[in-house]
Structure formats: structure tokens, C-alpha cells
Write a structure and sequence with these properties.
- This protein is an alpha/beta fold.
- The chain has a single domain, classed as Rossmann fold (3-Layer(aba) Sandwich), CATH 3.40.50.
- Helices cover about 35% and strands about 15% of the residues.
- The chain contains eight helices and six strands; from the N terminus they run H-H-E-H-H-E-H-H-E-H-E-E-H-E.
- The chain has a four-stranded parallel sheet, sandwiched between helices. Strands 3-4 form a two-stranded antiparallel sheet.
- The chain is globular, with a radius of gyration of 17 Å.
- The structure holds zinc ion (2 copies).
Length: about 240
């Protein structure tokens, strides 16, 4: 609770120092003006998380099933669109939590249009955790902010205790693909594994690039008996 309050204070102080302006066009007093918000492209078809060929609802295609622990991945935005990248960076590194509901609304639009979430029958949604040091530094976990919005919208129950990040990792940004895979190996542990046995789980994170982090999380959840593990992220980047 204290952490949350401190992060609100930090946000307030930052807003005094850096008054809101549209990330796209610089218009004052808001973070994304209606025009710039409209210029953000929503994905219009889903792909298999591994081979990226078109796939219904983002399900892992039959050919890729042996290569991943993820049963599917859904995202709404292209992380390579600069406004998308700027918005997500602003949330994470400039601590502008107010932007999350605005960007999450785009994801909800894609989910609602595709009805993909109706196939889930999710028992629980699990935000990708931050290492406690990173959490203390940032004051909030952006994946958890998103999970809360989705949980409220679709009546999914959230569990932010099951998955714990036990190893702190350096940022994946800028690391070559192979290094990213090594970077995330064994970074998670599972608490109270009995609570996930035979459960359908949706992992929630802000961005997926190589998918290495989600894969690592899905792997450990399945090792502890989870039935299905899907993932939902705001955006995905090219490799
Ligand atoms: Zn604008
Ligand atoms: Zn595939």
C-alpha cells in the first residue's frame, strides 16, 4: 500500500516537472490526443506465437506445439510503431501510469472485436512479475496495472503471488536473440503450486519481443501442473 502511495506522489511530482503533452504531436494537457490515438494501428489478424503464420485467435499452430509451452498469444499493437513504443516507454520509464488505461483500451477493442477472449475460460490471470528491486525502484508493475484492467473488464481473477521473479535480469532491449534466451533462463519460481494444478492461466505482460520471458514463465507454470497457458500483451515487436 505504502509503495502505491509513494508511486502516486512520485507521479504527481513528475507531472509538475514535466506537464502532460501528447506523445505524438506535443499538444498540451494530455498524453495522447484523439488524433494521435487514432493513428495507432491495431493488428487485424492473429498469428502463431512461434512461426508467426496466421492462426485463429493467436493459437499456437499444430506444427509449433512441440516447440513452446505457450498455447497461444494475443496482442493488439505493433511495438515497432514508434508511438506505441513511446507510450509503453512513458509508462515504464517516465512512470506515467495514467497512460495504461488509454493503451489498454486498444487491447480491449481488439479482444472484443475478435471475441478471442471468450474461448479462454481462464481460471486465473497472472501478471509477469518484476524483481522486487525493480518493483521498489519503479513503484509499480506495469504488467499488473494491465492485468487489473483486464481482470475487471472480463471478470478474471488475478493472482500476483503465484509467479515470482527470483533472478534480476538486465534489460532485454538491445540484447541479441540468443543472449535474450540465456538472460531469462530460470528467472521465475512458483509459489503455492497446488493453486495452479490443472488450471487455465493467462499470462499478462506489456510487451513481447522474442517471447523468451513468456516462454520461461509458461514453462515453469506447466512444470507445476498448469493445464493451459496463454499470454496477452499490449504489443509485440519484430524479433
Ligand atoms: Zn497528438
Ligand atoms: Zn506456428
Amino acid at each position: 500500500m505504502l509503495l502505491e502511495e509513494l508511486s502516486k506522489i512520485k507521479e504527481y511530482l513528475l507531472s509538475l516537472m514535466f506537464p502532460a503533452q501528447c506523445l505524438g504531436c506535443g499538444q498540451p494537457n494530455l498524453y495522447l490526443c484523439p488524433g494521435c490515438l487514432k493513428s495507432i494501428l491495431l493488428i487485424d489478424y492473429f498469428v502463431c506465437p512461434v512461426c508467426r503464420h496466421p492462426s485463429a485467435n493467436g493459437q499456437t499452430c499444430p506444427d509449433c506445439r512441440s516447440k513452446t509451452n505457450l498455447d497461444g498469444l494475443i496482442y493488439a499493437l505493433n511495438y515497432d510503431q514508434s508511438l506505441v513504443r513511446q507510450a509503453i516507454h512513458a509508462i515504464k520509464y517516465s512512470f506515467i501510469q495514467d497512460l495504461m488505461p488509454i493503451v489498454a483500451e486498444l487491447l480491449i477493442k481488439v479482444l472484443d472485436q475478435s471475441h478471442s477472449h471468450q474461448d479462454f475460460s481462464a481460471d486465473v490471470i497472472v501478471p509477469i512479475p518484476l524483481h522486487r528491486r525493480k518493483l521498489a525502484q519503479r513503484g509499480f508493475n506495469q504488467a499488473e496495472l494491465l492485468a487489473k484492467i483486464l481482470g475487471q473488464k472480463y471478470s478474471w481473477s488475478i493472482n500476483n503471488k503465484i509467479l515470482q521473479k527470483t533472478k534480476s535480469t538486465r534489460s532485454q532491449t538491445g540484447l541479441p536473440r540468443l543472449k535474450r534466451l540465456v538472460n531469462v533462463k530460470d528467472i521465475f519460481s512458483v509459489k503455492a503450486p497446488e493453486s495452479i494444478k490443472n488450471k487455465n492461466i493467462i499470462l499478462v505482460d506489456d510487451v513481447c519481443t522474442t517471447g523468451a520471458t513468456l516462454e520461461e514463465a509458461a514453462k515453469i507454470l506447466k512444470q507445476h501442473g498448469a493445464a493451459k497457458v496463454w499470454a496477452i500483451t499490449l504489443a509485440r515487436g519484430e524479433r
